[in-house]
Amino acid sequence: xxxxxxxxxxxxxxxxxxxxxxxxxxxxxxxxxxxxxxxxxxxxxxxxxxxxxxxxxxxxxxxxxxxxxxxxxxxxxxxxxxxxxxxxxxxxxxxxxxxxxxxxxxxxxxxxxxxxxxxxxxxxxxxxxxxxxxxxxxxxxxxxxxxxxxxxxxxxxxxxxxxxxxxxxxxxxxxxxxxxxxxxx
Length: 185
What we know:
The chain is mainly beta. It contains 2 helices and 9 strands.
């Protein structure tokens, strides 16, 4: 008789747990991890052009695709170097894509570039071409440097932002040295 009560009590408890409206937590799976050729944590890779170090890409997590020629990076830091190997800027972003075959990198979400001479560029999307050593964007940006702040849309530049070409200046205060071609007041 005691055994029957234990079975009935167990069934009542199980039925009560199912009917209280509590559903098990379901975590979302990462679709990149499901389809990646390889997943690595804490990666670092050199980006070169004809043996010349252009940048060093580091990321918390990297998903490799297309025979490991495309890397989807998360929480990335890219350090840029001059032709003589001296560091001149550091880029951080939440995510990015490096395509080894094309020699391009795209940084997305909270992209910040800080140069060694205290210039700071913030944008939502930035492209880097390792062969030309050019960073560019068609998105809105904010450039802060010791002499002022500029808001604009679209630019091309070297990573150190010494040859900055702005497509459209929205607002700006302070002193900026910009090339005359490719800029608009």
